[in-house]
Design goal:
The protein has nine helices and no strands. It is mainly α and about 200 residues long. The longest helix is centred in the N-terminal third of the chain and has 33 residues.
Length: about 200
C-alpha cells in the first residue's frame, strides 16, 4: 500500500470535509432534535455521504458525462442548496428546544445539507474522482478507500460527540451559534457559487 497516497487522501479529504468545522453547522441544523435523534442524524449523514462518495468513485465521471453536467454546474447547485439552508438558519427565530421530531425528520436533515453538499459536496466528489483516476492498481484503490474511510470515521466521531458542546455552552448559546453557523454557511455557499462562475467563465 502506498503510504504517501494514503496520507494525501486523508489530508485532502479531511480539509474538504472539515469534521471540526462542521460541528457548529450540525448543531444548528439539528437544534430542534433531542440527543438520541441527533445521534441518528449523524450516523445517517455519514452513511449517506459514504454512499455518495463510493458512487462517484465508481461511476462519477461517467454519470456527469452522460448527464452533460460539468463540475462547475455541480458546484453551483451545491452552493444554492447551502445558501437556502443558511438563510433558514439566519431567519428562524424559534428557540432551540429539544422536541419530539416527526418520523423521518432526521433523515431529511441528514441528507441535505449534512451528507450533501457539506460532507460529500463538489469538493469531495471531484477529489474522489481525481484520486481514482490516478490509481494504479488494487493497492492504490485500497489506499484511497482506507483514507476516505478514516476521514469519515473522524467525521462521525466529531458529530456523534457534538452534544458535549451543547453541555458546555447551553442551549441559548446554541441559538447564537446557529446564527454564526448560518453566516459561515452563507459565506461558503457564496464562495462555491463564485468558484462555479469563474470555472464557467474559463470554459467559454
Amino acid at each position: 500500500m502506498d503510504i504517501l497516497l494514503l496520507a494525501e487522501v486523508v489530508v485532502t479529504m479531511a480539509v474538504i470535509m472539515d469534521p471540526v468545522g462542521n460541528v457548529p453547522i450540525f448543531l444548528a441544523v439539528t437544534r430542534r432534535f433531542d440527543a438520541r435523534t441527533r445521534h441518528r442524524a449523524a450516523v445517517t449523514a455519514v452513511v449517506a455521504a459514504t454512499g455518495v462518495i463510493v458512487g462517484f468513485a465508481v461511476a462519477g465521471q461517467w454519470v456527469l458525462d452522460r448527464l452533460g453536467v460539468s463540475v462547475p454546474a455541480l458546484q453551483g447547485a451545491g452552493g444554492l442548496l447551502l445558501l437556502l439552508v443558511a438563510l433558514e438558519l439566519l431567519t428562524d427565530d424559534a428557540e432551540p428546544e429539544a422536541v419530539e421530531p416527526e418520523p423521518g425528520d432526521h433523515v431529511a436533515v441528514a441528507m441535505v445539507p449534512l451528507a450533501t453538499p457539506l460532507l460529500a459536496g463538489p469538493g469531495a466528489i471531484v477529489a474522489t474522482i481525481v484520486f481514482v483516476s490516478r490509481a494504479d492498481g488494487a493497492a492504490d484503490l485500497g489506499a484511497i478507500a482506507l483514507g476516505i474511510a478514516v476521514v469519515l470515521v473522524v467525521v462521525l466521531v466529531a458529530l456523534r460527540y457534538a452534544d458535549l458542546l451543547i453541555r458546555a455552552l447551553g442551549r441559548s448559546a446554541i441559538l447564537l451559534l446557529s446564527r454564526v453557523a448560518g453566516l459561515l454557511l452563507a459565506a461558503i455557499a457564496v464562495q462555491m457559487l463564485a468558484d462555479a462562475v469563474v470555472a464557467f467563465a474559463r470554459t467559454v
